[in-house]
Amino acid sequence: MSSFSSTELELPAPTGMPWDPDRIRRDFPMLRRQVRGKPLVYLDNAATALKPQQVIDSIVEYYTSYSANVARGVHSTSQEATDRYETVRGKVAAFLNVDVGEIVFTAGTTASLNLVAASHGGAVLRAGDEVLVSELEHHSNLVPWQLAAQKAGATVRAIPMLDSGDLDLAWLERELTARTKIVAVCHASNVLGTLIPVAEVCRLAHRAGAAVVVDGAQAVPHLPVDVRALNCDFYAFSAHKLFGPTGLGVLFGREALLADMAPWQGGGGMISSVEIERSTYAPSPARFESGTPPVAEVFGLGGVLDYLTTWDRVAALEHESDLAHYAIDQLRAVPGVRVFGESAHRVGVVAFTLEGVHPHDVGTALDAGGVAVRAGHHCAQPLMRRLGVTATVRASFAPYNTRQEVDALVEGVHRARAVFGQ
To answer: 379 an active-site residue?
Structure first.
């Protein structure tokens, strides 16, 4: 594993202060609860991260002080809520280093990727064209492209994964042609934690005239992301994986591309004028935000972004890297455990199997000790086939996790081997 010195990440220097997970843990009320009489050990952060009190307070603030619809009312409460809502859009733009008009709020990463596939993909794909996706993709960055390709008569092909868990960039460079209209990749794998060199993918794809769509759901919670430096055309992530509320996603799209895209969903708020026979549409981002938006959730995301300014995110990333190193070393010492992924650049996600024991049984044994992990195919069935398994156990780390919690994980795996093993 890497200490995240990859030049592509271009991380700022740490402050030099050691990361203190115990101090951070006090901000997360869920970590005070017990499961089956044991302190909760929450290692399912790749599915959804826990929420700090500051975020919960931001959502409560909306419902108690600003509870009105946005971009509609002329009354004071609506205007105040709208101002706050748009202020958060500006914070998101600064967070990603893009322009505020390039930020669209959606229902989640899945909704964002479906929007791009249906609207941009629907406009550019023709019979005989290709969409290239990586073998590492979550279904959310695969199935929408299948739907768009089927409608257009295009094809979807996989960019192979190397045995290390890295993307085969040599294959990508060799296979890119004028027929390639879309390259869709994750920034970080939700199974292996592999970091994709997005800037290099963009360089290759743009040289061939293809647009690059990035699923950033697993990267944004772990590392600072400069979308402008990555030079991708679309970038999507979910608030709930970034310690924020569920039901809210962010889509970055290049301003010129968004301007040419047709609406994905019709309704209130996304129109310029409406007649019975036809309508004209508002400019982006309003064009893609039909209906009542997730206002409370946007307030919560604003709380997240404010909260994260109190963190040394490079130190937090290094802490997660240490936890993942430690977990891999300890798990490999358990007889019968196989850890997947050898990439030199990865985030704090560790997938493994235990010989002779189904991952669901491992998950059950871990739950008995209060340890929460994910067991299954992780919405990445093509990757499971590439790995030669049907499912894995996944432990995913956040800055509030500790080495003691890794010890609890390993103890639970030993327990699963004793109870379910042959």
So the answer is: yes
